[in-house]
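@channel anyone free to eyeball this complex?
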Amino acid sequence: MKLKALALATGAAALAVSVAGTALAKVEGDTIILGSSISLTGKYATNGLHTQRGYDYAVKVINEAGGVKVGGKSYKLAVKYYDDESTPARGAQLAERLIQQDGVEYMLGPYSSGMTKAIAPVSEKFGVPMVEAEGASRSLFTQGYKYLFAVLSTSEQYLSTAIDLAAAERKKNFKSPSEVRVAMAFEGDPFSMDVRAGVVDKINEYGMKIIIDDQLPADLSDMSTTLTKVKALRPDILVISGHSKGAATAARQIDEMKVNVPMIALTHCEAAKVQEKFPNASTGFLCPTQWVETLSKSDAMFGSAAEWNEGFKADNPSYTSVPYQSAQASAAVYVFKEAFEAANSFDKDALRDAIAAVEMETFYGDIKFSEAGNNIAKPMFMRQIGADGSYSLVETFADMSYPRNVTY
Amino acid sequence: MLDNLQLLFVWAPILNVQVILEGIFVGAVFALSAYGLALVWGVMNIKNLAQGDFVIMGGYMALALSQANVPLPLILLIVVATMFVYGWVIYIGMIRRIIDQDMFVSLLATFGLSLLMQQVMNLIFGPEVKIIDLHMVNWDFFGNMVTVPSSKVLSLFLAAAIAFSVVLFMKKSRTGQAIRATAQDPRAARVLGINTDRIYAITFAFNSALCGAAGVLVAIIWVIQPFYGVTYSVRSFAIVTAAGLGNLPGVIGAAFGIGLVEKYTGMIIGTAYEVAAPVSMLVLVLIWRQYSMRRNRQVLR
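replying in thread with the prediction:
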């Protein structure tokens, strides 16, 4: 009899512990678990790694500064990663696994708009707030998601500033911006297509002419045919977007084929390290950036942009120039910290509301989310690569060196 | 599209030179890996889906060696030798067991090998695209309308030299004769005292070495990335199917043909369709062959 009672009691206790265990899986002991399905292999792996290091660095700094204070107690942050292999279907599976099996209730975003598009419906379905830092596609924010927040500027702003600069050049010479002839090459993925949409909008606004409009294949190693056309047709501005490999291939073949266009703008220059690998050819390239380390923004946790930059480089010595992908990843983790403390609770809906109400200045820039979840307080910056491989901020046409005339 | 046609043939016909040169450079590299595939397919009836990954592996080996400042000729020799040994090991470990099995087994097994190689290379080298920059001069002609990187010319010569030595090897050496004999009829070859198992090993290792050499050239003139192998696999299959097995001049001709078609398609229709070109050509070749062989088919009624 006694044995039976003891067995029953032990069973009940075990059950209680296990139930309690799963209920608190998102917070284990004094650690808050954030979940992230991220591209550690596959075509997005380069930037997936930049992102992961950004998350890890922020987690480290926040934990060392005393962690996150909820309900009077200090909690550390930790991130549980799964490799989504740069495949959207896999990413969605892993997100569901994080939420359902691992009990994660707070998500950090994956790399690239394509992956975020696959994972957002999953986190939305389970009401899990996700702060993402690497999905800039504007179509993410037209779906009515309530639990998706992005700290970065959306994609259609990436290269439209370059078109503005080309128009400014014409105006300066008392000519009409509609004289400008534009050559474009974009990869077929969602992000690049959004960048292209933004560029085309601007082109139509000014009435410019598109003379080359090529779509680059996914396994891009050769864009010589596009560049041959560029050399023949002599456009006034060349615009390229194909993620890191597009930038690397473009820089290399521009060098090989001795292409000279007065203005060349492309995305992902820093991530592809073109200023290092092709110092001569990359002179004059205009590169959009979400963030510059010379930005005059700062916060209490990471200091100024320059201080975040130094700290990150100290932790990751292989970087000479830190890509903005890492900076915005750190900013996303910081948003979570602020939201946890503002909500003073672990409840995901309370947290979601706290995130929506966040209004903060960070080393990365100002963060304030619109109704749709994107960051409306931070603009996109343009930088130009100089002959010495350094990036200088271009805010108006007067800041840039024009035309680009490189001797090969 | 019409604009591009006009550009090529009316306004700036000199561009044809550029496109043709690009096609030839592309074709030369594809020819190497296609011939290896033709050998393996013809001799052992193995359809090697990992062909492109062997190429990329050769490229990464060359990259590692060039970072250690090894001179180019030595890099080529070391890569060819190492890939030969690697091919032999793969043959003994895996291919030997699937020789007599049907088509799907060889496709599946080599597909698995391809996945394994891609992921291992990704783990070791990371997913960024890499190049070997020999800092060689880029020539330009016709007022900068046609640019020719000397590295591509070098790669063309190397590819030609390698193809030439392969032809000599297959025609004159005893092993080459043994390989051709085994391809024609393995049983008869065995009866005549040829160790077919050893010949299969040599053939597969040879294929691996050829791909390695192609990989060195790819690393010099383009970019390598762990997951780009599939491009080369697809082109090799297209070339071999168009040219037929074991037919080296045919393979070279088809490779150049596909290279040219690719570049012209890219120029006229758009870079995105470059990948579609070899595959579409393959379909056309197969249809044409189906039609032209009508008379040779007999039906048992």
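from a first look: Chain A has two domains: 23-153+294-377, 157-289+382-399.
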